[in-house]
Amino acid sequence: MTLKQIIKYNYATLVRSIDPSIDLLGRLRSVPFVEDRITSVKKQTTDQEKNDALLDALLEVPDNSQESVMNGFISALRSSGQDHVANIFRRENDKAIMSDEHYELLMRKRFELCKCMNPRDVLINSRSSFEIFSEADEQKILSKATLNDKIREMVETLLRKSDDAFQQFITLLHETMQSHVAYILTGEGNSQPLKEEHRTRLLSTHREYLVTIDSQYSGLMTSLMGKGVFSSYDKQCVDDVQPQTNYDRNEIILDLIAKKSQSDFFNFISALNDTGQMHVAVALIGADVVAKIKTVYEPGADVDHVRDVDADLLEYMREMFQRDGEVVRKINRILTRNGVAVSGVGEGCIEVTFTCQSVESLHSFRHLCDSGELQKMINEVLCSQFAEKGLKSIMIVISNDQFEHCAQTFARWIPMTSEHREALLSSQKLLVNELEVNGGLLDKLSLCKRRREAIESAGDHDRQVKTLIDIVSRQPDSGFTQLLHALIDTKQTKAAAIIRGGTKREMKSEDSELPETVTADAWKEVDHKLGRLLLWIRKFDPYQLSTMCSIFTALKEVLMTFHNLSKQTTILMSIRMIEEAIAEKIELLLQATKSHSAPDPGEFVFFSCCIIDADFLQHSLLCRALY
Description:
Number of strands: 4
CATH class of the largest domain: Alpha Beta
Number of domains: 6
Mean pLDDT: 83
CATH topology of the largest domain: Alpha-Beta Plaits
Oligomer: single chain
Radius of gyration: 34 Å
Largest sheet: 4 strands, antiparallel
Structural class: mainly alpha
Distance between the termini: 90 Å
Strand content: under 5%
Helix content: 55-70%
C-alpha cells in the first residue's frame, strides 16, 4: 500500500496514536515535502490538531515521492521511540498501538484516576518510569498547573504509547504504592481506592478538624511513613509547604490521604490513635459497633460442613462490602442514609464492624437493630446465596456494651471547641507574662514524650508558652479543663484567670486571686452524702421497695451536692470537670461496694442502673441550673 492509502485507511488510529513531540517534528525537518509544513504543525494547539495537520501534509506528497517520504517518516517515528506507530506503515517488530480495550478503559476511568493517582510518584519515585515516559513526557506532565491537569496529561500521553506500555504502567503503579489505582484499571488485588464517603469528608469545604490535627509535634509523619502510608515524596510535599504552619501542613496531609487506598486511610486513622489524636479520628470517621454474626443451619448439618460454609460466607461478605457489590448495595444505601458504614468483616465467628459517624447515627443504627430491619435485610440478601448449602438464617448479635462503648467514645473524644481554642489562642500574649512553663506544670498535662520535648526545647520562654498553647489547643476538649486544673494546682491562678477571660479589675487587683481549692466544708458535705449512698447500696434488698427509694434519694442528694459545689466554683470548673468528679467518686463507691463481703449479685445489677440514672439526672440538673 502507498503512503496515502495507509494514512487514509488508518487515519483515526494515527491521529490518536502519534505523539507529535519536539523530537519527532525535529527529525521530520529533513524529510522532503514535510519540512516546510512543520512550522504550521507546531502552531496547532492540541496534539490531535497537530497530528491532523501533519497527516494532511503527508497526504499531499506527490505519487512519485511517496516511497521516499514514507521511509523518512518511518525512520523519524522509530528514532523518536514510536515503533508501534511505524509498524502501521511497515512492520519490523511486535510493538503495537494501544488496543481499543485498553484505550477505552483509560478514557472511561480518567475521572476515577484523577481522584486517586499521584503522577509525581509515578514519574519520580520509580526507576522504571523512563521505560514508558521520556524526559520530554515528564517535563510536559509536570509543567501542568494543577494535580488533575497533570493526571489528565499523563493519561493522554499514555494513550499514545504502545499497548505493552499499559501493563508496564500497571507495574509502575504497584511499585509506587498505588496498587489501589491499578485496581481501578484491572479490578484485581486487595488494595482498593478510598470509599467516596471518606474522601468526601477529607475534602469537604468545612474541614474543622484541620485545626485539631497535630502534625508538627506528635510524630504523625513518622508514624505515617512507618505504616507505609506516605512515601518520601509525600513527606517532602508536607515539609516544603509554605508557610510552614500546622494548618497548611494538615491541608496537604488530608489532600494526600484522599488519594490513598482504603487500607491507607485506616492506617492514617491508626496513626492518629498512635499519636494521641483519637478525637480527630472520631471526628473523621466516628466510632465502631462490633456485631457478631451467628449462622443457623438446617437440622443435621455436619460440623465440618458448617465450618466450611461459614468460611465461604465470611469471604463473600468481606468482598461484597469492600466493593459495594450489587447484593449488599441496598443495605449500604440504608446504612449510609443513617450515617453508618460497614468498615470491616473479621474472622472468628464472623464479626462485622459498623462505624457510626455521630451520636445521631448511633441512635439511628440502634433503631435499625432493635426494629429487626437490619437483620431482615441481611437475611434477604445473604441467605439466598447460601441456601443450597443448608444455611437457614443469620442472626446479628450486638451486646448492649457495644452500644454503650460507642456512645462513651463520642462523649470522651470531643474535639476542642472553637470557644475553648479561641480562649487559648487569644490569651497567648498575656500568658507570656503570667504563665511559667516548668516540670510541675507539664507533669500534670497529658503530654507524650515528643510533645513535652517540643515544649521544653522550643527556645526562650515566649516560644515555650506559644508551643504549649498550640499543643493544648489541638487536644480533646478535656485538655482545656486539664490545663486550667494544672495551672491552679501549680499556683498559677492568674494565668488560669486570663484563659477563663478574667476582667481587667481582677487582673489588676493584687489581692484578687481565684480560690486554689474548693472549701473543705463543701467537700466534707460531698463525702457525707456519698457515705450515705454507699450505706444504702450495701443495705439494698431487691425485695424491699423502701431500700430502692432510699438509694434514689441518697443519689439525688449526691447530685444536688455536686450541683451546689459547681455554683461555688463556676470560674474554675466547667460542666465537664463536674461530670468527671462525679464519675470518679462513683467509681470509688463501686470499688468499695465490690470489696464488701458476700455481696448480693443483684446489688451490682441495680447499682449499674443507679449509675445510668445518675448520669441522666446529672445532665438534667446541671443543664437546667447552668443554662
